[in-house]
């Protein structure tokens, strides 16, 4: 009898760990379809992640001042890759 209860308890734990829906995953792939188009097919993983972050947080980004972002970028010293031969 004790073995049955252990199996039932294990089954309940497994059922509770299953995801309820795949909506979050589907939204992520839908967003990636909008961001990574055929023209942007060769973008790197880090740049793609940054673009997706901006896409997901677009309500927050819309309220930002573009000039202040440009000024902050201009203050950065090391923003170019140094090529050595």
UniProtKB/TrEMBL annotation:
Keyword Nucleotide-binding on entry: no
Domain HAT C-terminal dimerisation: 3-57
GO molecular function: protein dimerization activity
Signal peptide annotation: 1-23
UniProt key word Endoplasmic reticulum: no
UniProtKB keywords: Signal
Recorded superkingdom: Eukaryota
Name this protein carries in UniProt: HAT C-terminal dimerisation domain-containing protein
Organism from which the protein derives: Linum trigynum
Phylogenetic placement of the source organism: Eukaryota, Viridiplantae, Streptophyta, Embryophyta, Tracheophyta
